[in-house]
């Protein structure tokens, strides 16, 4: 009897660590690579400079580690570290993606690190060509993965509503002489100002999701520009997203407006406002998905600069073999009028892609 109890105790001591590691590190990732034919036409005041080429292109292939550890009843530590992999050999081997550590419980989640802003995450399922040639980042502002973030995510309210807030630390210090010089609208300086406050730059969102209906509204305030990043711009952005999914069909709409945060831009810029929208839809037939996406934006410029007009049209077909693996074919037209901020400087790019994506 004593031997049986001893054997049981030894077995329990071996099994216990396994139970403790049940939410331990999980390695995950995906490879996404395509063969592309890209043709470009850069026209300047009637003169055309065109050409085409074949290319093997990686689309944000990645791997990461994520997990959680129980600390107390209804309290756990959560973490995630993710890298982008250069899958076609043309860039850096590894680059940082989302990475954070924090606490999660009945109060929600508090996270510290680098992560997508709430405004970016509010896009929902609209970007059917994400990380490919028709990514919505080519048309509208706001697709930012921010550094130095303190974030809070509420628990789901009424099983349908989630709110997020991210405080983006600019980390300027007067002692190090890295403070911005503020500018008036006429370009005159008004002295130095340090962005050393907790709330100097932030992103926030609130989203509703239930019964196939999705709706979200999000704002960025004094956030580093992604699409409009020339001259170190800081922008204020508002984003509205609506989506509906029914059986095999889904449709989504996004409206975005961005303007220069004049208080904190460190150099004179020509940006006045960007207004854009995205419309996407897909239909599933068995394991085949047919999808389309349209985007348009107008960036208004000051100082007699011509407005920049961007139009994007994309169509694609996916053939899913399993939840992990799919083949796809896509066509994308991306057109930019007045690309150089001057009249007659136009660009057009046509991309035809055939590729494979595998998740693990």
Task: Report what the structure shows.
By secondary structure, the chain is mostly beta strands. It has one domain: Beta Barrel (Porin). Helices cover 6% and strands 60% of the residues. The chain contains two helices and 19 strands. The chain has helices at 2-20, 118-121, and strands at residues 26-44, 47-58, 62-72, 75-85, 94-105, 108-116, 145-153, 161-168, 180-183, 189-193, 202-210, 213-224, 234-246, 249-260, 271-285, 288-301, 308-320, 325-337, 345-359. The strands form two sheets. A 16-stranded antiparallel β-barrel has the order 1-3-4-5-6-7-8-11-12-13-14-15-16-17-18-19. Strands 9-10 form a two-stranded antiparallel ribbon. β3 and β4 form a beta hairpin. The longest helix has 19 residues, at 2-20. The radius of gyration is 24 Å and the shape is globular. The relative contact order is 0.14. Mean pLDDT is 87; it is low at 5-22 and 182-191.
Which structural traits does this protein have?
360 residues, mainly beta, Porin, 16-stranded antiparallel beta barrel, two-stranded antiparallel sheet, 2 helices
